[in-house]
C-alpha cells in the first residue's frame, strides 16, 4: 500500500481589531449543534483599547444556527440600549444574519420579524452598524456562545470578565493573531 503525504495546509493570520476612536465594538456569535439543535449565543462589548465593558451568553433551547446568531445580535443590542451606549460597531461572522438584520423590510410572516425590526430600531437610535468578520476574528464571542450551551438561563450578563477568558482579552488587546486555514478547491 502506498501512502502519499498531503502538502501542508496554508494558513493566513487573523486578529481582532479594536474599534476606531470614539466607537465601541460588539462581537457576537451563535452556536447550534444541529439544524435545528441545542442552541446558544454569546457576545461581548469592548472599548477602544480592547477593554471589557460587558459580556453575555444564553441558552435558547432547540433552534437553528441562524436563529442563534440573530438572538446574539439582538441581546447585544438590548444591552447597548440598556447601558445608553452609542456608536457601536457590531461584528459577527454570519453574513446571513447581517443580511437579514440589514434588510429594510422583512416579510410579515417571517418568524423573527419582531426581533429583526427591533434590531434595526436600536441600531438606528444608538448609531450602530454591522460588519462581517471571519470566525477566527470572532474567537472571543464564539467562546462565549459555546459557554451558553451550559447555562440554565436564556441570558446571563457579566459586568466583569470571567477568569477563564481574561488571558484572551489581553491577547486581543495586543494584536494576537489566530491561524485561519485557507480553503481551496481540490484539483480536478
Automatic annotation (TrEMBL):
* Gene3D superfamilies linked: Ribonuclease H-like superfamily/Ribonuclease H
Q: Which domain of life is it from?
A: Eukaryota
Q: RNase H type-1 domain: from which residue to which, for each copy?
A: 20-150
The record, for PANTHER family, names: OS05G0353850 PROTEIN, POLYNUCLEOTIDYL TRANSFERASE, RIBONUCLEASE H-LIKE SUPERFAMILY PROTEIN
Q: This protein is called what?
A: RNase H type-1 domain-containing protein
What parts of the sequence cross the membrane? none
From the UniProt record, which GO molecular function terms apply? nucleic acid binding; RNA-DNA hybrid ribonuclease activity
Q: Which InterPro entries match?
A: RNase_H-like, RNase_H-like_dom_plant, RNaseH-like_sf, RNaseH_domain, RNaseH_sf
Q: Which organism is it from?
A: Escallonia herrerae
Amino acid at each position: 500500500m502506498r501512502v502519499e503525504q498531503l502538502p501542508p495546509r496554508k494558513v493566513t493570520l487573523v486578529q481582532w481589531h479594536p474599534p476606531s476612536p470614539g466607537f465601541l465594538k460588539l462581537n457576537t456569535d451563535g452556536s447550534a449543534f444541529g439544524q435545528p439543535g441545542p442552541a446558544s449565543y454569546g457576545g461581548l462589548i469592548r472599548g477602544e483599547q480592547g477593554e471589557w465593558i460587558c459580556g453575555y451568553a444564553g441558552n435558547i433551547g432547540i433552534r437553528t444556527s441562524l436563529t442563534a446568531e440573530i438572538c446574539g445580535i439582538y441581546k447585544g443590542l438590548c444591552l447597548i440600549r440598556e447601558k445608553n451606549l452609542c456608536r457601536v460597531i457590531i461584528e459577527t461572522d454570519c453574513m446571513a444574519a447581517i443580511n437579514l438584520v440589514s434588510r429594510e423590510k422583512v416579510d410579515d410572516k417571517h418568524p423573527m420579524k419582531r426581533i429583526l425590526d427591533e434590531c434595526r430600531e436600536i441600531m438606528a437610535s444608538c448609531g450602530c452598524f454591522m460588519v462581517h468578520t471571519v470566525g477566527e476574528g470572532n474567537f472571543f464571542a464564539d467562546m462565549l456562545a459555546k459557554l451558553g450551551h451550559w447555562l440554565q438561563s436564556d441570558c446571563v450578563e457579566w459586568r466583569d470578565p470571567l477568569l477563564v477568558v481574561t488571558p484572551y482579552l489581553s491577547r486581543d488587546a495586543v494584536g494576537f493573531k489566530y491561524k485561519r486555514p485557507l480553503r481551496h478547491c481540490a484539483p480536478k
